Amino acid sequence: MFCLGIESTAHTFACSVIKFSAHEKFPNILSDVRDTFKAPDGSGIHPREAARHHASVAIEVLKQSLASSKIKYKDLDIVAYSAGPGLGPCLRIGAVIARSISSFYDIKLIPINHALGHIELGMSLTGGQDSLVLLVSGGHTMILVFNSKRWRVIGETLDITLGQLLDQFGRYLGLASPCGSEIESLATKSSNNYISLPYSIKGNDVTFSGLLSAAKRLISTNKYSNEDICYSIQETAFAMITEAVERALSATEKKELLVVGGVSANKKLSDMLKLACFRHKVKFNSCPVSFAGDNGVQIAWTGILSYLKSKNFVDISKSFVNQSWRVDSVDVLWRN
Ligand code: AMP
Ligand code: MG
């Protein structure tokens, strides 16, 4: 069975083909092609411009994905696309392409929740069984646990996401978005001079907007280096997330933690979470860095799982995009 996965929720347009044979636990990835929209330095993703980017690269990304997987359109069994949450104009590009392939070649069409894609690919690649999941990306900051056929959110950001904190601060410094990895490298050049910043955690929930405003104010004082401010943002924000995760581990008594999403590529965050897991005698799993950010593999793999167990393919007339589609509204029938 072959599934084409199309990802287009935000800055990345990506296509992947996965081959699946019965009893395979791990995705057999035949292709993984991505093209990311680059906003001008200091600016964020403008949804219409990102969508224009996706429309201009889509055919080439698709062609490359099919060519490197050495299959033809007619060999595909499923076309899965990211249907949300995400930026409306970007989502529509992926959906239009998926619908066109599905209708022309008469292939089953499956809308996939993007957050579920991050989680399910991470679970499969790390062999996770019963993990507490931390999803930290541009669009999400959530702590989740699987219960009664759904990934339930037991902690989340009450305002901006961890990725937005890093990207918005980075843009304020004039960096190119997404800025997380550049902030990480600036932080490693700091002399570890910690500057106190607002630390805000409410139960298992966190808030980052006060931290962002305070960090921006530090710049205008001209008293601190960018390296020290980046170091302090990371220390504060990651300590908040780690505390929320520790609370959730204590409450759920889970024995595994899985961290997924673009920000999971950050070494400092991993180190802090690893230490927390060590303290709680919990196994630490992290999505491999090459699949941490948005990609088509997560959509193709979740498409296969959905097809096999949920049979939730849709008629083109019923296919949709939903900018605010919550992961905890999706039934996950392949998990116990
Ligand atoms: P995603 O939405 O899953 O593609 O993740 C994108 C987010 O991950 C953006 O906010 C990036 O700034 C962030 N990101 C990527 N690499 C890193 C890193 N090394 N450290 C922190 N954040 C990162
Ligand atoms: Mg994402």
Could you please describe the fold and organization of this structure?
The protein is an alpha/beta fold and 336 residues long. It has nine helices and twelve strands. The strands form three sheets. The chain has a five-stranded mixed β-sheet, with helices on both faces. A five-stranded mixed β-sheet has the order 8-7-6-11-12, sandwiched between helices. Strands 9-10 form a two-stranded antiparallel sheet. It is globular. The chain binds adenosine monophosphate (AMP) and magnesium ion (MG). Adenosine monophosphate (AMP) binds next to helix 4 and helix 5.
Give a count of the beta strands, DSSP E runs of length 2 or more. 12
What is the 3D form? globular
What is the total domain count? 2
Give the assembly state of these chains: single chain
Strand content: 15-25%
Q: Share of helix among residues?
A: 40-55%
Protein structure class: alpha/beta
Order of helices and strands: EEEHEHEHEEEHHEEHHEHEH
Question: Which CATH class of the largest domain?
Answer: Alpha Beta
Assign the CATH topology of the largest domain. Answer: Nucleotidyltransferase, domain 5
Spatial gap, N to C terminus: 24 Å
Number of helices: 9
Spans with pLDDT under 50 lasting ≥5 residues? Answer: none
| Main beta sheet | 5 strands, mixed
Mean pLDDT score: 96
CATH superfamily of the largest domain: ATPase, nucleotide binding domain
Radius of gyration: 20 Å
List keywords for this structure.
five-stranded mixed β-sheet; Nucleotidyltransferase, domain 5; alpha/beta; 9 helices; 2 domains; globular; 12 strands; 336 residues; 20% strand; binds adenosine monophosphate; binds magnesium ion
